[in-house]
């Protein structure tokens, strides 16, 4: 069926289990599998550089523009979704350096502030009351508020309110469902979401996230225009904090007319849309696998205690401190390997001259892609236990760890890899040990497993846990939070 119609592609994604189907297909039929008349899935991690490498010249397929979003009724291309490598370079060049790890770590205090709020909310709402907590929701509240803080110096407010705001989270998930399904037959998008006639009759509305991004960007521009920043207690103007928005504005001012206004819109919206769901999925995986594997959890806790006893940890654990925790690092990598955020092939188009992969010739125009789930569960590379939790596989030696790393597609790879990778890593490496340090966590009902469904992102739900406070660590953090609040006020 796959050789004759794209309906198989659609049917496969409709199951919500395409990631598992792809693993099964590659184990049954080999490294090259046809998923549609013109779509071929590659399951061999060694083929990744050929398709996505820095020197590879395979453009993105027509699957991606389905993900273009609207702002004020206008269709806004994004760095992620554009199929044009020229436009991608033009949009990326002015801002790429802002996303280096060195520059992202300059915003670490903004992440610290968000973690303090997160810990306080978990303590007050759950640890002190014994009420079960749906951790799957709260990890996304955290991810949303961090990206808001790093981009705008302002949290969106998910953590303080303890709920989805304006259905933003659900709206993104609906968007992912549309993208995943309609992207299998992309021309359908021009009859529905991108239909110019329908959009004249029923103008496309901005998403809540786009509205939030535009509101805060407009507010900052107004403040800069009139030099009307808030006044502190000494009646002095408050200097605007350095954040990604301020860097974007600097880049736009420096480039002048070379950077149109809609680039700024696209940069800020892309940060919010791409920076919450995928990071939350990674975080859920880390906590899930640790809680399901008590031996690993105990070893992480022992590692944390030793670092604490040796006074190697700050009140809010820094990224650098967390990365020094070798076993925790292995657990975070293993969780990302077992459950990568994206569950469909990252589609590319074979250029002129065709492509030779694993003994198969793919002619020009063929759509080809690797699904991270197939690559990261490859038994040839990861062993017969590729489907099992074993963080120790990352601790053999540096050469073996590097070999495994090359098969990882958590953030894409090559010149079209995720710009926000370092933001996500800082969020994850800081909050995981902080939560484990402050709380004992148990499943509310160990017999209930999480639920997952794949519509582009492989989202997890049903992660009810019970938090118990650790008095010594909690008191230390509470005092640090009070001091921080006093400094701010």
UniProtKB/TrEMBL annotation:
Q: Name one GO molecular function term.
A: oxidoreductase activity, acting on paired donors, with incorporation or reduction of molecular oxygen
What InterPro entries does the annotation carry?
Cyt_P450, Cyt_P450_CS, Cyt_P450_E_grp-I, Cyt_P450_sf, Cytochrome_P450_monoxygenase
Q: Which residues bind heme?
A: 418
Gene3D superfamilies xrefs: Cytochrome P450 (1.10.630.10)
- Cofactor dependency: heme
Q: Which SUPFAM superfamilies match?
A: Cytochrome P450
Q: Which UniProt keywords apply?
A: Heme, Iron, Metal-binding, Monooxygenase, Oxidoreductase
**Superkingdom of this protein's organism:** Eukaryota
Q: Does the keyword section mention Lipoprotein?
A: no
Q: Which family does it belong to?
A: Belongs to the cytochrome P450 family.
Name of the protein in its database record: Pisatin demethylase
Q: Which organism is it from?
A: Curvularia kusanoi (Cochliobolus kusanoi)
């Amino acid at each position: 069926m796959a050789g004759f119609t794209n309906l198989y592609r659609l049917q496969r994604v409709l199951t919500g289990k395409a990631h598992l189907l792809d693993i099964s297909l590659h184990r049954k039929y080999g490294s090259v599998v046809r998923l549609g008349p013109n779509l071929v899935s590659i399951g061999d991690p060694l083929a990744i550089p050929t398709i996505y490498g820095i020197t590879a010249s395979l453009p993105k397929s027509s699957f991606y523009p389905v993900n273009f979003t609207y702002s004020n009724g206008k269709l806004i291309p994004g760095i992620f979704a554009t199929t044009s490598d020229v436009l991608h370079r033009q949009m990326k060049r002015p801002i790429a350096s802002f996303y280096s790890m060195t520059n992202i770590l300059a915003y670490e205090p903004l992440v610290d502030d968000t973690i303090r709020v997160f810990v306080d909310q978990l303590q007050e709402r759950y640890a002190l009351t014994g009420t079960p907590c749906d951790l799957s929701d709260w990890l996304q509240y955290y991810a949303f508020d961090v990206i808001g803080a790093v981009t705008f110096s302002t949290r969106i407010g998910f953590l303080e309110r303890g709920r989805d705001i304006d259905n933003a989270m659900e709206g993104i998930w609906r968007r992912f469902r549309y993208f995943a399904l309609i992207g299998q037959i992309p021309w359908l998008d021009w009859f529905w979401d991108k239909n110019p006639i329908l959009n004249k009759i029923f103008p496309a509305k901005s998403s809540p996230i786009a509205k939030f991004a535009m509101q805060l960007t407009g507010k900052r521009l107004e403040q800069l225009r009139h030099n009307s920043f808030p006044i502190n207690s000494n009646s002095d103007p408050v200097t605007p904090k350095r954040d990604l928005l301020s860097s974007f504005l600097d880049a736009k001012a420096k480039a002048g007319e070379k950077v149109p206004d809609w680039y700024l819109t696209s940069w800020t919206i892309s940060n919010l849309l791409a920076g919450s769901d995928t990071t939350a999925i990674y975080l859920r995986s880390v906590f899930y696998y640790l809680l399901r594997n008590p031996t690993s959890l105990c070893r992480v806790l022992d590692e944390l205690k030793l670092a604490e006893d040796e006074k190697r940890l700050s009140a809010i654990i820094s990224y650098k401190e967390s990365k020094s925790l070798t076993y925790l690092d292995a657990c975070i990598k293993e969780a990302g390997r077992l459950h990568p955020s994206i569950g469909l092939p990252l589609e590319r188009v074979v250029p002129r001259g065709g492509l030779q992969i694993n003994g198969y010739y793919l002619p020009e125009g063929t759509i080809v892609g690797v699904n991270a789930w197939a690559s990261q569960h490859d038994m040839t590379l990861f062993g017969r236990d590729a489907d099992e939790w074993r963080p120790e596989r990352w601790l053999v030696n540096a050469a073996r760890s590097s070999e495994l790393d090359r098969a990882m597609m958590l953030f894409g790879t090559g010149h079209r890899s995720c710009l926000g990778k370092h933001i996500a890593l800082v969020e994850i490496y800081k909050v995981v040990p902080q939560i484990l340090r402050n709380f004992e966590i148990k499943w509310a009902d160990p017999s209930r497993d999480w639920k997952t469904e794949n519509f582009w992102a492989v989202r997890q739900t049903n992660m009810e846990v019970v938090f118990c406070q650790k008095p010594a660590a909690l008191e230390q953090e509470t005092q640090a939070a009070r001091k921080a609040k006093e400094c701010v006020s």
